[in-house]
Automatic annotation (TrEMBL):
The active site is at residues 250, 284. The chain crosses the membrane at residues 507-526. PANTHER family: ALDEHYDE DEHYDROGENASE (PTHR43570), ALDEHYDE DEHYDROGENASE TYPE III, ISOFORM Q (PTHR43570:SF16). This is Aldehyde dehydrogenase. Residues 52-465 form the Aldehyde dehydrogenase domain. InterPro entries: Ald_DH/histidinol_DH, Ald_DH_C, Ald_DH_CS_GLU, Ald_DH_N, Aldehyde_DH_dom, Aldehyde_DH_NAD(P). It comes from Polypedilum vanderplanki (Sleeping chironomid midge). Pfam families: Aldedh (PF00171).
Length: 532
């Protein structure tokens, strides 16, 4: 699949670094924030050095401190609700309801989950012990990585940055936040507001564009969490490779949407068009294209026509509930897709307003540009197939998607598609809403690596450190001294017996009972042979 950002190469890039510096409103930043924005390598080294010192001090590992910081972040959302809504409207003309539901609520609920469950998530795990370790302490400790870098994307400029940041804080890390330079107002909001609520010794916002991210990536981090395009994902992964830094890549791709004739098509159209046209399709898990038979296509388009009219009225451009394309570059790229196949619905656009009407394309060829790259806009092509096996082959011939949508009431067909394909996640009979369930969120193959949200968010930023504490007593030594030379066949057999993985019934206090039995046997032996 071509990268959706490939239009960068032909001179239509949304913002060059020089433009970014020009567009970024540095003059509006406070002096405190300006001090943090040092585009020289040494400047970053100073910031990172300070964060490393804070991490080494152990301050961020304290659970009370972590909760206090998470609660401060919660206050930031509560006390700046209107500023958040305004920043999103300025960057993306995001309707108020979408700002609340897709950003503020997502961020708030993630924080509440982390705060409420932090003690449980951070508690050491006691794994099952084998016979060889029955007198020892075996524990899995939850250790923060250290100083982590979180790089956000512009399409959901707050939650895609601040949700993983909350996970990193909950896990006890220090964090460098890098907002996207394209969502200028949200980026400024974060740079201005974050230091007022959270501890600047442990968390620093670094603003800027490609040049600054490139410089940042030359430094060593303990973990990198990146959300954005596949193309830049590869750059981030290559930079991380230099230091073997563990990395989560939340990338994009084409998420297919299969529809069969067993579902209510009006309801299906509503759920698909909502997922496609919220944030005007600039959503990584928006249904990218539909796969269905020619008969379903016809009915789907009729239902869609009614739904769009019901939602946005006769003139979509006048609707307050419909957003705009974020950059001129993305707008130009999307307009070229109108030349693929036939426009069955919509098709209007207005460059002066970066407006593109919800559009459905039919008769697209599998090789059309609209089918080669992630669309990331309100254009929905329909690919015709003959049957479910055709659909499965079509999906499997392409990169593994971030999400796979299946609209069917036929459980056998549902299971067949789920079992025969691979995707970051599957959502049956709806779109996008799996994002807010208690599910791991992330891609597979070309759509990314690693996952987050809820407990998975905490776990992503946590190293699970195995810890074995051997008993030094006589019995423990006796149980394992067969490992010492001189080696014999009997010793080898005994060690194999002790080390063998067995399926035990889970008996409570098994090791205590075993220790008691061993002690009783030893007492009996000593009494019989030594004290008689
Ligand atoms: P992007 O990759 O262009 O930019 C994201 C970040 O990378 C920005 O902070 C930017 O400064 C930095 N960056 C850009 N070019 C860089 C370079 N050459 N070197 C170093 N850093 C660079 O992505 P985007 O345009 O913000 O987002 C759109 C893409 O992200 C789509 O493909 C979409 O599907 C994907 N996405 C994925 C998710 C997810 O959760 N999986 C969420 C949102 C977006």
């Amino acid at each position: 699949m071509e990268d959706w950002n490939s239009w960068d190469d032909n001179g239509d890039a949304p913002l060059l670094t020089s433009d970014i510096k020009r567009e970024f409103p540095f003059d509006l930043l406070s002096n405190q924030t300006k001090n943090l924005i040092d585009f020289e390598m040494d400047g970053y080294e100073n910031i990172l050095g300070q964060l490393r010192a804070t991490f080494r001090s152990g301050k961020t590992k304290d659970l009370k401190y972590r909760k206090k910081q998470l609660e401060a972040l919660l206050r930031l959302y509560e006390e700046n609700r209107e500023e958040i809504i305004n920043a999103l409207a300025a960057d993306l003309r995001r309707p108020r309801q979408e700002a609340i539901v897709f950003e503020i609520d997502v961020m708030t609920n993630e924080l509440l989950g982390l705060i409420n469950n932090l003690d449980e998530y951070a508690a050491p795990i006691k794994p099952d012990k084998g016979v060889a370790n029955m007198f020892d302490k075996v524990t899995i400790l939850k250790e923060p990585f250290g100083v982590v870098l979180v790089i956000g994307a512009w399409n959901y400029p707050l939650q895609l940055l601040l949700v993983p940041v909350a996970g990193a804080i909950a896990a006890g890390n220090c964090v460098v936040l890098k907002p996207s330079e394209i969502s200028v107002h949200c980026s400024r909001f974060i740079a201005e507001t974050f230091p007022k609520y959270l501890d600047s010794d442990a968390y620093q916002v670094i603003s800027g564009g490609i040049e600054e991210t490139t410089s940042l990536l030359k430094h060593q981090f303990d973990y990198i969490f990146y959300t954005g395009s596949n193309r830049v994902g590869q750059i981030v992964h290559a930079a991380a490779n230099k230091y073997l830094t563990p990395t989560t890549l939340e990338l994009g791709g084409k998420s297919p949407c299969y529809i069969d004739d067993t579902v209510d098509l009006n309801r299906a159209a509503k759920r698909i068009l909502w997922g496609k046209n919220s944030n005007v399709g600039q959503t990584c898990i928006a249904p990218d294209y539909i796969i269905c038979t020619k008969e379903i296509e016809k009915k789907f388009i009729e239902e869609s026509r009614n739904v769009i009219k019901e939602w946005y009225g006769d003139d979509v451009q006048q609707s307050p509930d419909y957003g705009r394309i974020a950059t001129d570059g993305n707008f130009k790229r999307l307009v070229t897709f109108m030349n693929c196949g036939t426009i069955a619905l919509g098709g209007k656009f207005d460059a002066s307003d970066r407006f593109i009407e919800p559009t459905i394309l039919t008769d697209v060829s599998h090789d059309d540009p609209v089918m080669r790259e992630e669309i990331f806009g309100p254009i929905l092509p329909i690919v015709n197939i003959h049957d479910i096996h055709d659909a499965i082959d079509f999906i499997n011939a392409r990169d593994k998607p971030l999400s796979l949508y299946i609209f069917t009431s036929n459980n056998k067909d549902r299971d067949l598609i789920i079992d025969s394909t691979s995707a970051g996640a599957v959502c049956v009979n709806d779109t996008v809403v799996h994002f807010v369930c208690n599910l791991p969120f992330g891609g597979v193959g070309a759509s990314g690596m690693g996952a987050y949200h809820g407990k998975y968010n905490f776990d992503t930023f946590t190293h699970e450190k195995g810890c074995l504490e051997k008993s030094m007593d006589y019995v423990s030594e006796k149980l394992s001294d067969a490992r010492y030379p001189p080696y014999t066949d009997n010793k080898a057999s005994y060690l194999s017996f002790m080390m063998k993985k067995r399926k035990f019934w889970k008996i409570p206090f098994f090791s205590h009972i075993l220790a008691f039995a061993f002690g009783a046997a030893a007492a009996y032996y000593l009494k019989k042979y030594y004290f008689n």
